[in-house]
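Z., the sequence and structure:
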Amino acid sequence: MTVGASEWATAQFGVDAKSTEGAIVAGLLAAHTRAVHAHIGGGLATADAYGGVMWLAAAEEILSRIADIEGSGRIRPERARYCLGVVNNSVIFPQRIGTDLRTPPTEAKLAVSRVRADIFSLGPASGPTIEH
């Protein structure tokens, strides 16, 4: 049985929804693997090594997987140390939305840094140029 893309993904990514969803999931899994290796290799009692790698690796891994999607691109937000992928003019911004399995994603709180505030305020008249 083939499962189609979610309603949300279809609204965001159009005909590329299913491939974009797959790229995001595979990218997050690969980033998690890299972060776990950093955590183990770091030998710390805290999750600092994991967290330091996860958020940067997620953007890298997703970006590399969407590169084959026609019309995809990348942006580098001002003051950011990373690039983000763009498909169908929608920026893919990987963000941790919870630290436990009890909190539904719809109730997650998103910390808003200055970089995130700039990204979320992008409109047609402003923001970084999308590189294809």
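The chain is about 45% helix and 10% strand. Residues 17-42 form the longest helix (26 residues).

Let me know what you think.
H.
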